Amino acid sequence: MTRFILRRLGISALVLLGGSVLMFVLTINSGDPLQDLRESNDPNRDNLIAQRITTMGLDLPWYQRYWQWLTGAAGCLVGRCDLGTNRAGVDVGSMLENAASSTLRLVVGATLLAIVAGVFFGILTAIRQYSGFDYVVTFFAFLFFSLPVFWAAVLLKEYGAIRFNDWIADPSVSLLTTLLIGVVLGIVVQGALGGDLRRRLMTGGGTALFVIVAITYFDAVDWWRRPALGLPVVALVSIGAGALMVALTSGFGNRRVVRAVGATVGLGLVSYLALGGVLADPTWPILFGLYAVAVVIALACGWFLGGFSRRTAMWASFVTATVMAGTVVMDKALGAWAGYLQLQPRPISTIGSQTPNFDGTFWQDFLDKGTQLILPTVVLTLISLASYTRYTRASMLEVLEQDYVRTARAKGLSEREVISRHAFRNALIPLTTIVAFDFAGLIGGAVITEAVFGWKGMGELFRTGLTQVDPGPVMAFFLVTGVAAVVMNMLADISYAFLDPRIRR
Amino acid sequence: MTVTTDAGTTPSDDRVLSFDGLDVRFTTEFGSVHAVKGISLDVRPGEVVALVGESGSGKSVTSMTALGLLPKNARVGGNVEVAGKSVGSLDSRGLRRLRGNDVAMVFQEPMTALNPVLTIGLQMSEALELHGIAYGRAALDRAVELLRMVGIPEPERRIKQYPHELSGGQRQRVVIALAISCNPRVIIADEPTTALDVTVQADILDLLRSLKDQLDTGILLITHNMGVVADMADRVAVMFKGEIVERGTVDEVLNRPQHPYTRRLLEAVPHLGRGPGQFGTSRHAANSVDMVGAPALEVKNVAIDYHRTGKPPFRAVDDVSFVVRQGEVVGLVGESGSGKSTLGRAALGLIEPAAGEISLFGERFTGMNAKASKRLRRRIGVIFQDPAASLNPRLPIGDVISEPMIVHGVGDRRSRQKTVYELLDAVHLPRSVFNRYPHELSGGQRQRVSVARALTLEPELLVADEPTSALDVSVQASVLAMFTELQERYRFACLFVSHDLAVVDLLADRVVVLRDGKIVEHGDREQVLHHPREEYTQRLLAAAPVPEPGEQRRRREERHRLLESLGDEVTTLQLDPQRQHGRLDDSTRE
Amino acid sequence: MTDPNQHEAHEAIVPMPGGQGADPGSLQPVTRVEDDLEGATTDKSYSQGQLVLRRFLRHRAAMISLAVLVFVTVLAFTSIGVGPIPGWWTYNYLQPVEVVNGGRPTLSLWPFSIGEHPFGQDTIGRDWFAMVMRGTQRSLIIAFVVGIVSTLVGTAVGALAGYYRGWVEALLMRMTDLLIVIPLLALAAALGQISGGRNIFVLALVLGLVTWTGLARLVRGEILSLREREFVSAARAVGTSPARIIVKHILPNTLGTIIVAATLSIASAILLETSLSYLGFGVKPPDTSLGLLISDYQNAFTSRPWLFWWPGIFILGIALAVNFIGDGLRDAFDPRQNRKKD
Prior knowledge:
The complex is a heterotrimer. By secondary structure, chain B is α/β, with parallel strands linked by helices. Chain B contains 20 helices and 21 strands. Among the domains of chain B are: 1-102 and 188-269, Rossmann fold; 110-183, no CATH class; 279-379 and 485-532, P-loop containing nucleotide triphosphate hydrolases (Rossmann fold), CATH 3.40.50. In chain B, a hairpin with a 2-residue loop joins strand 5 and strand 6. Chain B starts with a strand and ends in a 25-residue tail after the last helix. Chain C has a domain at 65-79 and 132-333: Orthogonal Bundle (MetI-like fold). Chain C contains 11 helices and no strands. Chain C has helices spanning 48-57, 60-79, 128-164, 166-181, 184-195, 200-208, 213-226, 230-238, 242-279, 290-296, 305-333. The longest helix of chain C is centred in the last third of the chain and has 38 residues, at 242-279.
């Protein structure tokens, strides 16, 4: 097994090398690096040209320039990175730090979101094949798949950001819009849940009613500007998540799992109340530490209370704990929203990935970065979401035709158990390879999105580098994205082996 | 038109499974398909009822109604009762309680019946927990016990393994263990042994028989194999196009069939031990075989390796030598993994042997260059197993058959067409087939086209790789009859690869028995198949069932004696001797 | 061993007594067995290709999309003409005219009228409809050329890799890895810079040369599975040359996969080219492309939204139509996905 991994790493290294040569040669041949200077009227022109030639090494042959870059980049393996400078002499390495964190934040977030949502919709549409729900979701999948990223980004910028900012200044939802939203959500929910007419009316109508009441309430208390979730909502969501996990994994008949998940929810709520002070203005390490503690508590609940269904209980508690952690974070963040609006009357910015010189509490800073992150993430997610949904759907449909699913039904398992315990894992297996391959496409999408939203990320490095025929920033872009792609491929292989025991043994 | 010779129905209703006027229709894009047309059948505890039929007869559909597992586009009429409960009247929860608990099913394909990503233990304890028989640790213990019962060695280790680590026969045992785990009253076995080797099949049938003997379970056995019916069944029902056309005890139906369809079916089954002359064929005298000239095919010390990535090569064939003389039919027999198909392909020059040499008509074939080998290939023909994959779906039949002539530049368009028509006549296909496409033909018809294609250039050597294994029984019989007729007419030599000893008994002059890539025994058909010397051959022959119940019972007893003399165990359900005779102890059931 | 019951359900058996003359109970002599063939009710015999066509024509979404695509193509090329051939539209895409009503579109749906400038005018007065049509032309041409080039290269490479294996296959695998490591957009951008600006055909050619790997992998996979099929083995056993095997036996059976993949590659080519042009690495002025049009006026969204909407809708529409056509083709070639009545 280790030999296999080493061999793969070796091949990846060679491929990276080859790719770097290709990228380098293409970049330096893509135009004239002195073009802007040649056309300028600056009296100092000739000096500037000579200066640039020295900085960029334009008088050297290409292989020497490449070798220079390679030796510098190889230093990264031992910790002394020298990625060269851009044409103005600024060290690329320092530019890279900020840029990389921005872009990777975006791309990883979008990938995770797309996977979760894609799998969710893919499985639902496979179960409800040829229903109205299926057709609608499929149509939207095609739509998002055919959407030009840059166009969608601009659209989102206009409606998601500018109009939203206008609206938040004096937020109110008209009655017509409220009714419309309620009805649409009702229709979606009843389509997803299926069932006979009576059941559909109940689920759809119930949802619509709930949404309409909620929105009216929010409007009345100006929740849009002064939101708060508070203990009741957090508790409700936690209990709901716990119930959902129990329903999906073992069913309510299994008391041990119910007890384990219940204990997790209870302890979680208690700690939420107890740690209110700590959570008021924490730091990232504290937050991660608390999450780790929560996970440990959840796993412990599963282990001790799970009895013979230990593993199921642990898994269900883990997911519930994660959802609860997310809800608590949202609660705290929303609590800071009011204050944030004071500092930033137009919250969703359209330029840049964070407000420069921002000085606020942790949560306000979180909101700041968060609001900037939302729109680009949504754009990227939409594109990947479409293909993941289709792939999961196709894979799930194929799995449902298999003999072992028939065996599971013949044992007497309910449809829900058949899908969650038998079909689900098998359907995910082909998805891992897709995600790995899709990652490179996602990077391309990130380049475009950053251009639209004015982020100073890897995309911008690449674009300016290429337009200026400056290999430094372009190669830095290639290095990070290439290594990230190799890592993703490795991860995909590992998850494949994790999911499919036929590969392991 | 039903011919019944029932022994009279008993008034007491202890039937564990009964179909009463069952009628099933499917609504498809092309209209309504009437799959089952009002049949009635029942199974009592401790008895095996065999439901016999070919493809399209509706037998599988019938069995699925007992579990309520038909797809949504099925309309079911009539009544199905399992252990007294009417399946049609149950809601989904009742149906789920029924499945596995009152009625269990053993499906055909053991290789795909188990979920590949879950351990055996998990899949077994799932059923137990579902029906409230045992939970957690207790469920796993019970699973170990069940595995031991069905004869899987080292069950504690197997519990933690995944399905792909078990062989086909072992997987089928696991499936049977799953089926009996919740003490069902009746087990429905749909072609449970079709995908298994004949020796494994005999073991599984022994296991099923001991199931009914010791646990008093009723078994509905669905099969097309008359030998299996003779071995297992107490009563038989014959299905044809959705109707039961004959029923009775196994002795009545198999020995004194009344209905023409049953008669035809039985006459189409090759009977191991009766030799050539079945199906109205006569055999040429042995001196039509050319003993003097160069043999058509000579295999000398051939070894063939399969290369796998990351692992050492697997030796599929090891030091095999035999000869096929001109005009002779040699049967190459073996179970799966014996290397017989590999050898067949090597004889065609499709695989290069790793060692040894293969000669055709006295010329060395291995290592020949393309031009010379093409000359030699004119003299060989090939028939493969899968009728669906044997013909290029894009070419009309006329083109398929004339391909070899075009490749070797024989004749012009007119003469080729003439040849094709002649060949179509020879394989008893209508000439109108010339312009049709493969997807418009049935399996048997496609196989005849394959035969025609093989004969196009009047080959002197034919390699047939399981040519009738994928066909229904009656179709197989007519194809085999046609084949022997052609062999007599054209006098080609033939290497006939098969796992079915009865078919080989019908056709071959000499027989070669392969096991794990090595030759175990070879010689005249009469000697190898009727008086085998080697232990392995004896086992093979003992395990092959014949379609006559009395004879089969004798053979079974002989086989058990043979196994015991060889030191093997006869497969039976191994119950804890402390348990009571009869049903499994289900006091742990909540 | 295969199960005889697994293949098609309609095994023609001699029918019940009362049918043919000879006693069906006996098997000798075996004369005209299995005379009735499926589909022999008419004399018409459908080849695979014809069956596929019939299924495709029944796919509603694909048919609608095909109609839309044809309409858009015809509109784009005839309205303003192409090359020396003039079009029927009054305005062309180069000539600014007087700005009317702030350049607003004159297209109205109720009552239906087209007006002078149905898509409006840009900031310097050029007719936006003409510009969008011109952009559509360029983008369509590039997309089709890229599709054709990448299909040809991909099929050739995939076929060779699949049939001959060995070093050809290894080469293909390395190239695929290479193109995973370098994001396609970056590679295409660099290539666009080198070649673009001069001639859209050169740009299209160059783009086609880097987008074939997906198709090559698909074709290779198909061929790997096909070459193990028994009819290919039968052809080899008889002595058929490798060339004839590939051309007559293998490729015709991969046609389905190739056609579907080619169609889908056209859709992604449109998106790739417009994205590149948007970023400035693809088609450059004075030539135009839908992507370029959008990038030029993206900031005018609030004041002149029509400048933004129309090119985008055309890109979306074309890509969507081509994707639906590809999906329809896929369903036509692989009928396992077809709808069963519930």
